[in-house]
Structures are given as C-alpha cells and as structure tokens.
Amino acid sequence: MLTIGSIQAGTKENIIPDSAVMKLNMRSYKDSVRDKMLNSVQRICTCESHASGANDPEIKFINSYPVTENDLQATAKLEQSFIGFFAEQAYVTAPVTASEDFSYFGRKWGVPYVFWFVGSTEASQWEHAVQNNTVAQIPANHSSLFKIELDPTVKTGLEAMLAAALTWL
C-alpha cells in the first residue's frame, strides 16, 4: 500500500515553486515487494523530474521499517495461551501492513517474535459495526477520529503482556 500523506509546494497560487516536498508511507507483506516499491518511487520521481527539465530529486527516507512477520511456532503457542486466558475474546486476525519498528528487535537479536493487537474500541460501537459489517469503517490509530476506550483497553493490554510472559516462563 502506498499512501501520499502530504504534498507541500510554493506559497501562492500564481507563483511556480522551485521545490516541493511529498511525504509517502509504504506498507507491504513481503520485503521483496517493499524493495520494489522503494525502487519504483525513486525511479518515477527521478524520471518525472528529468521530464520537466529539473535536476535529480533529493529523496530522503525518514522512517523505514522491515516487514513484520510473526514466527509461526511462537504465534501458535501464544495463541493457545491467549485463548486460554481471554476465551472467545481472543482470535487470529488477517495479516496487516503495520508500519512498525517492532520487527527490528527480533531480526537484530535473531529471536522469534509475535506482534498482536489489543482492541480499543468501545464495546457497543464494535458490536454495532460487526452486526452491520462496518468494522473496517471504525477509525484506526492513524485517523484523526481514532478514540481509545481506556477502560478496559489498558487492563486488557497489561493482561495480554502478562499472559505472553507467562507463556514462556
């Protein structure tokens, strides 16, 4: 997924700017796709710049995170612990393209890792969305409309961390 989150150029509508800043976010399920996206953005921006008679663009990568791939064995073990503790409230989600620094730790240390989510939506809003097949429309963490239901989210997050720690002790 490629998101253009910001484009900034110029100061007035009748003056051609000499520079522009475009901020992107890229997410993928595979490192090979991520690498292809990065190369494609660089190639396209350079070609468009040359086509306009401009110099090579200055491209800076501010935040760049590798794909987060949960270890299958660790995930299966943790899944059983979560089901044992949270019962029907625990379930496996489809893969997501989270843009996280989390995977650096497991990769750097050469250890298995599991990234999980803790729901934070108010219960009646969630139930309504499930009944109406509109769960995807609930504002997520990068939305200006995102709202965390602190109780029980913080408690559930702490319980998940404790259940995970106890799985390996």
Describe the structure.
It is a single chain. This protein has 169 residues and is mainly α. It contains 5 helices and 2 strands; from the N terminus they run E-E-H-H-H-H-H. It has a two-stranded antiparallel sheet. Helix 2 packs across helix 5 (150-168).
Mean pLDDT: 90
Number of helices: 5
Quick one: how many beta strands? 2
* Structural class estimated from helices and strands: mainly alpha
Summarize the main sheet.
Answer: 2 strands, antiparallel
Helix content estimate: 40-55%
* CA-CA gap between termini: 38 Å
The fraction of residues assigned to DSSP E strands is: 5-15%
- Strand neighbour order, sheet with most strands: 1-2
> SSE string, helix = H, strand = E?
EEHHHHH
Q: Using the CA coordinates, give the radius of gyration.
A: 21 Å
Name the overall outline: extended
Low-confidence stretches: none
Any chance you could write out the topology, listing elements then pairs?
Blueprint lengths: L1 E8 L10 E7 L4 H21 L20 H15 L15 H8 L13 H9 L18 H19 L1
Antiparallel strand pairs: 1-2
Write a short abstract of this structure:
With 169 residues, this protein is mainly α.
Supply database-style keywords:
two-stranded antiparallel ribbon, 169 residues, 43% helix, mainly alpha, 2 strands, extended
